[in-house]
Every structure is written in C-alpha cells, then in structure tokens.
Amino acid sequence: YLTNALHAKCSSLSQTGKMKPNKHKLTHSAEREFGGALGATCIPVFLPLTVLYLLSVCRSPAASVLQWPPPLPPTAHLWDPLAVVLIVGWITLQSFLYLLPIGKVSEGLVLRDGSRLKYPINGFHALSITAVLLIVCLWLGMPHGYLFELILPLAVCAIGVSYLLSMYLYIRSFWAPQHALSLGGNTGNPLYDFFMGRELNPRIGDFDLKYFCELRPGLIGWVVINLGMLMKEVELRGSPSLAMLLVNGFQLLYVTDALWNEEAVLTTMDIVHDGFGFMLAFGDLAWVPFTYGLQAMFLVVHPQSLSTLGAAGIILLNGIGYYIFRKSNSQKNQFRRDPTHKSVAHLETIATATGKRLLVSGWWGFVRHPNYLGDLLMALAWSLPCGMSHILPYFYVIYFTILLIHREARDEKHCRAKYGLAWDTYCRRVPYRIIPYIY
Ligand SMILES: NC(=O)C1=CN([C@@H]2O[C@H](COP(=O)(O)OP(=O)(O)OC[C@H]3O[C@@H](n4cnc5c(N)ncnc54)[C@H](OP(=O)(O)O)[C@@H]3O)[C@@H](O)[C@H]2O)C=CC1
Ligand SMILES: CC(C)=CCC[C@@H](C)[C@H]1CC=C2C3=C(CC[C@@]21C)[C@@]1(C)CC[C@H](O)C(C)(C)[C@@H]1CC3
C-alpha cells in the first residue's frame, strides 16, 4: 500500500521534474536494505577484495580458505595492460552485438508514468555469434588457456569498470526525471544511493545499460572464462577431465537458457524494481564472471577423478534442478503475460486488490519460490564434480543459498505491500518458501 501511494506521488512529480537536476528523495530511511548506509559503505570495499581473494586461493595448491596468511599475490600480478584491452574489447563487442538489428523487440512492464520501454531480444544471437568468433580464434591458434594466467588482472579491470560505471550512473541520475528513479535507491544518503542505484532504467538513447549488463558481458564472459580453464587443462594434461566437462556443460546450459529466455528477465526484480547502481553493476560485470566459475578454475589446479555412476548422479541432479527451474519460471511468465493461455488457464488462482491474480496451484502451489529450489539444486550439481576435499568449490552454492534467502525476504516484503491480505492468504495456502517441509 505504501508502494502504491509512492507510485501515485511519483507519477504526479514526473510532470514537473524533467529538465532540472532532481534533488528529491522518494523513500525514508526506515526502509533501507543490505545493512543500510553501513552495509552500503562496506560492501563495495569488501566484495571486490573477496573476488581477488577467492581467485588467489583457488589457484593456490592448498586451496584452503582457512590458510593463514592467505596466499595473496604480489601487486605486480594484479595488473596487465592486456587485461584492459581484453575487457574494453569484450564490452565493445557485446555492445555491438546488442545493437545489431536482429531478433524481436519486446516491451517491458508498465512504468510509473504509464509508458513501456522497448528491449531488443537478441541475446541468444549474441551468444551464438560470440561462439562462432571464439571457434575461429581457437582455430587460428589463439592461446585461450592463457586466461588462467590473466585471471587476476582481468578481475581487477572488471572491478575498475564496475566502479567507473556506478559513478557515471550515480552522477547522471540527478538529471533523470522523478518517475525514472527507483523507489529504493533515493534516500538522500549518497553512499547508500550509489550502492542501490538511483535510476531505474538508465539509457543512452535506446541502449539500456542495466538490461545489457544483466545478461551480456558478465554472463557470456563467465562461460568464455570457463572454456579458458578447460583449454588450460588440455594444455596441462592433454585432454579435459570428466569433471571439467560437466562443470562447463552445466554452466553453459544455464547461460544459454538465460539468453534463450531473455524476455523473461524483463519481469525479474532487478529490472522491475531495483535501481542500477554499484550492487548490480559490480554483480553483473565482476562478481558473476569471476566467482560463478570458480569450480572450473579449481579443477585446473586440483584435478578430480569422477566415476561414471557419480557423474550420472550429478547429471540427474542438474537435470531435476533445471526442470524445476525452467518449468516454474516459464509457468509464471506465461501466466503474467497471458493468464488465459491454455497451459495456465486451468490453474487455481486467488484475486488481489490490484487486479492481478496469484497462482496457488501448479509449481507456485508447491512452494512460494519453486524457481529458487531448482536453481539451488543446479548450484549443488555444479560443485559436486569438484569432490568433497575442499570447501572452496562449494562457495557458489553457499553464497547462492544466502542470496536467495535474502532475495525471498525482499520479494515477500514487496508482495505483502503490493497484495496485502491476498498475499497472506497465499502464504497460508502455500506455507513453505523454498524447500517443502523445511523452509
Ligand atoms: N544465478 C543467480 O545469481 C541468480 C538467479 N536468480 C534466478 O532468477 C529467477 C528470477 O528470480 P526473482 O526475480 O528473484 O524472482 P521471481 O521470478 O520468483 O519473481 C518474484 C515475483 O513473482 C511474482 N509472484 C510471486 N508469487 C507468485 C504467484 N504465486 N503467482 C504469480 N506470480 C507470483 C511476484 O511479482 P508480480 O506479482 O508483480 O508479478 C513476485 O514479486 C529465479 O529463477 C532465480 O532463481 C535470481 C537471482 C540470482
Ligand atoms: C554479491 C552481489 C554483488 C550480488 C548482486 C546480485 C547479482 C550477482 C544477481 C542479482 C540477480 C541476478 C540474476 C542473474 C545473475 C546474477 C544476478 C545479476 C541471472 C541473469 C542469471 C541467469 C538466470 O537465468 C536469470 C536470467 C534468471 C538471472 C536473473 C537474476
């Protein structure tokens, strides 16, 4: 209800706030997330250091997070001009592919001023063209395994780019009209707003910066780095291991799925609700490509032997996770886009005061976040090929559990504000959040 009141307030402000730099704040400090101003000050320092620490530990022979002193690299190993060329070249290539007039154009959800933004749906084309370019480069003899040596300078450079981008986003947001500002990132506290992001959908012309960063350079970069680790293994041992093939295959499936179903990202919390600030810029450009693939990097230095039965079990786990993840996400997207479609029309729903309905049967009647459950099962399957001897390859599944529990709580708060009593009824009908009978 508070959100709706703010929506109405912002729509009226939008009539006046177009030309002058905006200085108004839209929310009050009581609603701050991520530990408020203190969290927003510490996280931008702590997380970039965590990326560099994890990469260093992963490449060390012990690969132990408890190792003291930690195996930190000399500063000279953190910098290489080639990394700058590769990162700038990579972002330029992905921007060029984003702008290619191929694929369809889709509309996002209705914004506070009643308008809808248009988005190019050509992510899968971008992935395919990148794959062809990569194959040509490999065929011409490009030493792709060198990414293993270059990983720290690449990460430093990506972190630098995410800082520069966040500063640009923060500054330009003061010229955005009021209705284009996010409701959560405009408290008036510069550090907090820098972290959360002031502007909702910053664009340069038709180029949507948040949508581009969410799915292109980081996500595709992640699987390109994974392939680099596979090539490094081939250099060292003559052929890729089964564990490395599984990790590469699973994560490639995940990224391909995200780009194949690109349109679905238009209804996620990040695009609809969150501003574009340091959290997402750093998450998309540095955190995802350099920590989500730690398993492949771990396998280069710590080879694992995997039995056929073990591999079959892990493939089955990933398959089940993927099935739940895909089916539940597709069911909700289909329902939100067209509730009368034959695949969802038979499902039981409850009405809400907003006019939108909530599913209470099918996947969304099983638990309140079936998509998170599937995602978590996949996360576990990505770590298991690395064996049980180290905790480091399980970093992703541990971090992801924390992220999704926190995300679920944030979403719950938004839904309760949006749907009021209907949300409480839904929670009574579907009591478990992510894991049936457990959580
Ligand atoms: N790999 C990674 O790092 C990450 C992956 N993810 C994945 O991204 C995907 C999207 O996640 P996310 O954006 O967090 O959230 P969801 O896709 O789960 O969307 C939540 C929204 O769905 C709608 N909704 C909730 N319950 C119902 C219902 N019963 N019936 C109809 N609509 C409902 C509500 O929005 P409304 O009613 O307004 O439509 C709610 O705000 C997930 O699969 C998640 O696992 C997410 C974060 C990180
Ligand atoms: C620690 C830190 C800075 C966290 C920031 C969070 C981001 C890394 C994630 C927030 C939501 C994300 C999503 C995906 C990747 C990670 C981030 C950006 C996603 C693109 C992965 C692929 C999925 O299929 C997806 C498209 C559903 C998903 C959307 C959310």
Short structural description:
This is Delta(14)-sterol reductase TM7SF2. This protein has 439 residues and is mainly α.
Characterization of the model:
Helix content is 58%, strand content 4%. The protein is built from 16 helices and six strands. The chain has helices at 2-13, 36-59, 81-99, 123-139, 147-172, 190-196, 209-215, 217-237, 242-260, 269-272, 278-291, 294-301, 308-337, 370-383, 395-419, 421-429; strands spanning 104-107, 118-121, 203-204, 207-208, 349-351, 357-359. The strands form three sheets. It has a two-stranded antiparallel ribbon with strand order 1-2. Strand 5 (349-351) and strand 6 (357-359) form a beta hairpin. Helix 2 (36-59) crosses helix 6 and helix 8 (217-237) runs parallel beside helix 12 (294-301). Bound molecules: NADPH dihydro-nicotinamide-adenine-dinucleotide phosphate and the ligand CC(C)=CCC[C@@H](C)[C@H]1CC=C2C3=C(CC[C@@]21C)[C@@]1(C)CC[C@H](O)C(C)(C)[C@@H]1CC3. The site of NADPH dihydro-nicotinamide-adenine-dinucleotide phosphate has 21 residues, from helix 13, strand 6, helix 14 and helix 15. GO terms for molecular function: Delta14-sterol reductase activity. It comes from Cyprinus carpio (Common carp). This is Delta(14)-sterol reductase TM7SF2. The chain crosses the membrane at residues 34-56, 76-100, 121-141, 147-171, 276-294, 306-325, 379-405.
